[in-house]
User: What shape does this take?
Amino acid sequence: MTLHLDDDELVACVACGLCLPHCPTYRVTGLEIASPRGRIAAMRSVQYDDAPIDAAFVGAMEECVQCRGCEAACPSGVAFGHLMEETRAVLHDTPGARPRLGQRAVEWLGYRIVLPNRVLLRMLTWLIWLAQRLGLVPGRFGLPKLAARDLTIRLDSDPDPEAFLFTGCVMDAWQRAVHRSALAVMRSTGARVAPSPNGGATCCGGLHTHSGRLDEARALARRVIASMPGDVDIVVDSAGCGAAMKDYGRLLGTVESEAFSARVSDFSEWVVERGLPELRTTGRSVVIQDPCHLRHVQHAQGPVHQALALAYDISTTADDGLCCGAGGAYAVYQLQLAAAIRTRKAEAIRNASPMATATVLVASANPGCAMHLGAVAGLDVRHPAELIEEALP
Assistant: This one.
């Protein structure tokens, strides 16, 4: 059978191996099949040589974090992210290659029922809060500690806004404090801003794309586009969501979707371009963790560093932005690999900190990374919006 991959993208890899040090699964396992080069070779074998889609092939594809660090290192410009998304889409629809029944049931409930439904997601969040209060949620799940005062935060809207802040699904339910800080910082630039309007802008579809559920991702993308017509700026404070929304043009292939994607900016991109007020110097040190979808996909990590440097002593890790292992739902399905990758990242973060303190302050512009790294003792992971708000005059 064929994987329906673009031939030009599939043959672009020349197997030079420059991607290997930038692949977190290869760094952990040392296995060729766990590298971008090895995975592409496996894709070619299926598409061109009629190799079977067996358990080894499926495992190799599922164990990819989809961090796309290989793309940044590739001199041939291999579109590995596209290849992996299309391959997973085929696996999702292929009997015998699909995930186990239990995983499919969880994904159906999460991706089709909960994430696109704002009310249901909020209700589930309150149930999680109650379960945490009763001590029923194990720490190994990596969920953030929910607080009732954060869950009840109201996000105010300015009349005739110049920019919308996309609130999304998980962040809107679990990290509303980040949205509140982002809106405050955006208003400090003198702009009129508002959270994304209408119930349609609930989920961007990024998690669906990663899982090969492309039809569902396209349906959600259309909902998001329809919820914010016009030409108002769209600001996103989740690196994963921003990467997905900037790719709507390719996902949907329409003029309207391309125009929409052109309106999307990462939070730090937007506030730096607008011009922040003079921030007060905090005297605190912060290690910046560049989320993969901000650094490798959006190529927009620079404004985070630029903004935080106005108020903090910043430092960066020496691992060339290697992935932390969160990968959306990856940390749920690939527990051992995700934990091993996180251990390496946490060590790099601690080594980058100039302060020999018990708790290292970390800035991360992606909620998945924040939750994944926040489960590691000694790391206080905050969103850049929260840190910038603390430094406002």
